[in-house]
Design a protein that fits this description.
- The chain has a 6-stranded mixed sheet with strand order 2-3-1-4-5-6, sandwiched between helices. Strands 8-9-7-10-11-12 form a 6-stranded mixed sheet, with helices on both faces. A 3-stranded mixed sheet has the order 13-14-15, with helices on one face.
- It is elongated, with a radius of gyration of 27 Å.
- The two termini are 37 Å apart.
- The protein contains 15 helices and 15 strands.
- The protein is an alpha/beta fold and 454 residues long.
- It binds guanosine-5'-diphosphate (2 copies).
- The site of one guanosine-5'-diphosphate has 16 residues, from α2.
- The site of one guanosine-5'-diphosphate (GDP) has 16 residues, from α8.
- Keywords: GTP-binding, Nucleotide-binding, Repeat, Ribosome biogenesis.
């Protein structure tokens, strides 16, 4: 479908460039029949017939991915929000209110053949208070005859009226240019992510076997860098070839030349761990399979999750694990790893080389999840079913509503839920768990953020 085609286009054009851009949100408001759905479809580049007059369709899919002029944004058709209908004017004003609170910019659509009614005047009063940019589209300007009339819409105090014909496409490009100009340029989180070998942090408490593994990997497989061999300066990173790919193990200098426990060694070890995690895209957290999980292990795991990096758990020294230890581990890990049930576990021995070749596939899976984005339409289709089946718990007598959701970012995948009320942590975790059941994301943290309308 064209929906899929658009998402494919976004994926293709955006993959590297837009990787870390949060997607700004544009909400479209207006009275029924002014042509909002037609305009939304025009912007999305679809036939208007797709949405029109199909009951439930706009309700289920209120948010869409739009793309124009190299920018992508989330387009929200507020027709689907259906604020409590206590009179048209009040309900459109309420729509505008929600739009102002949740979106980054608002587009008010009116019917130029009718002009500004008392409803538009009321809505304009609401929107003039907005700190967010507001655009005004005068729709159904199918030919020049109505152009003169649209000038009178300046009096709404919302700036320049944009005459368009959603039906025929007239001037919709100009409107889109204005929309793009009005939307905030999203902040860039990780400016430095670039092509080249994927970056891996090999971390874990002292003596867990990090140097042994690195030596094993660089010894058995071919170590690409030691191109600086012969110099006294260690390269900060090691390039290691694993399973047909080259990987950059970041910040490994300290691993090769072991600085033995001087004063503050633990502090420096922890600092090194933090630096390596920040510089990496995926972390291999090494755990000692022969020993119970320690506080130190959990601190390292927390660092990875908080930094939003993807993760592989390597249980090292598997050669020392016997039957008894295996049994003990099962319970221990259920408790110890509650924060990262989504991480893949690989049982290895850096000493014997057991299963170390399973690391590369696990790294690939984790990175794939880290890079994955669920298209907005698909996300909302799934979410509206989930919420219909299990609505958020009532808090102080109120039932929070989830208006729509979008996956605003990747690396790590980040969902933003637009709601009418606070969602408790338990319910957010529920959503995350169901999201993973449906869409996967093995090996990557997933963030669930909530934007609440006051
Ligand atoms: P919504 O209720 O605001 O979403 O309005 P719709 O998109 O469902 O449109 C309402 C009616 O107006 C439909 O019959 C459309 O075909 C018609 N319409 C929408 N845009 C235009 C336009 O630019 N020109 C004309 N002449 N009719 C339009
Ligand atoms: P690091 O401090 O994390 O870099 O740990 P090292 O690689 O220096 O290893 C610490 C000790 O554990 C060394 O004596 C290693 O020989 C030993 N070791 C590392 N990996 C294994 C393993 O898989 N099995 C066993 N039995 N010993 C290991």
């Amino acid at each position: 479908s064209e929906f899929a085609a658009l998402d494919a286009q976004i994926e293709a054009e955006g993959a590297a460039e837009q990787a870390n851009l949060a997607q700004p949100v544009l909400a479209v408001v207006g009275r029924p029949n002014v042509g909002k759905s037609t305009l939304v479809n025009r912007i999305l580049g679809r036939r208007e017939a797709v949405v029109q007059d199909v009951p439930g369709v706009t309700r289920d899919r209120v948010a869409y991915d739009a793309y124009w002029g190299g920018r992508r944004f989330t387009l929200v058709d507020t027709g689907g929000w259906e604020p409590d209908a206590t009179g048209l004017q009040a309900s459109v004003a309420a729509q505008a209110e929600i739009a102002m609170q949740t979106a980054d910019a608002v587009l008010l659509v009116l019917d130029a053949t009718v002009g500004a009614t008392t409803t538009e005047e009321a809505v304009a009063r609401v929107l003039r208070r907005s700190k967010k940019p507001v655009l005004l589209a005068a729709n159904k300007v199918d030919d020049d005859r109505l152009l003169a009339d649209t000038a009178s819409l300046w009096r709404l105090g919302l700036g320049e009226p944009h005459p368009v014909s959603a039906l025929h496409g007239r001037s919709s490009g100009d409107l889109l240019d204005a929309i793009i100009a009005a939307l905030p340029t999203a902040p860039r989180e990780l400016g430095s992510v670039s092509a080249g070998p994927r970056r891996v942090a090999l971390v874990g408490k002292p003596n867990v076997g990090k140097s042994s593994l690195l030596n094993k990997l660089s010894g058995e497989e071919r170590s690409v860098v030691d191109s600086v061999a012969g110099t006294t300066v260690d390269p900060v990173d090691s390039l290691v070839e694993l399973d047909g790919d080259t990987w950059r193990f970041v910040d490994t200098a300290g691993l090769r030349k072991r600085v033995n426990s001087a004063n503050g060694a633990e502090y420096y070890a922890s600092l090194r761990t933090k630096t390596a995690i920040d510089a990496a895209e995926v972390a291999i957290v090494m755990l000692d399979a022969a020993e119970p999980l320690s506080e130190q292990d959990l601190r390292v795991l927390t660092m990875v999750v908080e930094a939003g990096r993807s993760l592989v758990l390597a249980f090292n020294k598997w050669d020392l694990v016997d039957e008894d230890r295996r049994h003990a581990m099962v319970r221990e890990l259920d408790r110890g790893l509650v924060r990262v049930p989504w991480a893949e576990k690989v049982n290895i021995s850096a000493l014997t080389g057991r299963s170390v070749r399973k690391l590369a596939p696990a790294l690939r899976t984790a990175l794939k999840s880290w890079d994955q984005r669920v298209p907005t339409g698909q996300l909302n289709g799934w979410l509206s079913d989930l919420i219909a089946a299990t609505p958020p718990p009532v808090r102080s007598g109120k039932q929070p509503k989830v208006l729509f959701a979008t996956q605003a970012g990747i690396r790590p995948p980040t969902l933003v839920l637009f709601t009418t009320g606070f969602l408790e942590a338990g319910y957010r975790r529920f959503i995350e768990r169901k999201f993973r059941e449906r869409f996967g994301f093995e090996g990557s943290p997933v963030r669930v953020n909530v934007r609440v309308r006051e």
